[in-house]
Amino acid sequence: MFLVLLVILIVSFSCNAKTCVNPFEETPGGQCIFNPGRIFRVTWDEGQKICRWFNENATLVEFHSYEDFADVKQFLENQDTDCSHWAPGAGPWIGAKEVGNTNNFTWLSNKSPIMDDNWTVGQPNSPTAEDAVMMSCEFGFRFLDKQRDNELPILCQMPPKKKEEAPKPPPFCPASFTRVGNTCYYIRNTGYENNWDNAQKSCKALAPNGKLAELETVEEIYAVTDFLLKNGNGHHYWIGAEEHGREKEYVWASSGKPVLVTNWYNGYSPDQTTDDVILLLGGSYKYRWNDWGRTNSLYELCEADPADLS
Which InterPro entries does the record cross-reference, listed alphabetically (predicted)? Predict the structure, then answer.
């Protein structure tokens, strides 16, 4: 009888269990958090938009109980025990902002006041109006107020989804490709380098419908950037965007669709030619984007749909 009851409880728990959708991760307390860390440094308002790009229901993280805060704090500390993940005084933004110039702060979603006893000593103290709130790792993730136009990392949160709503994983990639998200990628970083047109041909020869990688969404940009930071060996790579006859207008080569979401490196300034293509800058640029003449030679980052490779 006990065994039957145990099985029923396990099945019941499994049916009601909740999960997170990539790239969100589940905290010990069951919240869905996405910490892009070093990938983004943006204003508070931009951070809210970027969270929604990853999931339509996502926002900068909010804490409506001390348990929620303690849970996320533990999650972040498990990821980074010595705060080396964060630059000193560098975020992340969370989803609270100031009411006028009152030094009173509320959560954006429901206008409820934030936890007043979770501020860093001496905070809030900004003389400007409508500031926002960040957490500081060096102060135990307590709160600091900052002007919203500061560029800081972000921490996103989405409502958990039931397991049956989670998307099915795509088919496996062949040995030469690596699955990143829902796409298969191939990094070529040994041997000779190619100009952009030959790199495109090289990708097409690797797999059915192979092509230079086309990073059309924020999710793809984040996933591929993270993948290259771990596996790219600091090299620069061609991707599949080319200038469309006019300066600063780019399209994806396979479809002709305009490049709407970009990740240019800080300080990027387009040159005056109209036949450039886009590359991912390795090294200290951490695979942000730049444009360059298509006759130059680099390694290529290829992609292919798993369904085409199975």
Answer: C-type_lectin-like, C-type_lectin-like/link_sf, C-type_lectin/matrix_domain, CTDL_fold
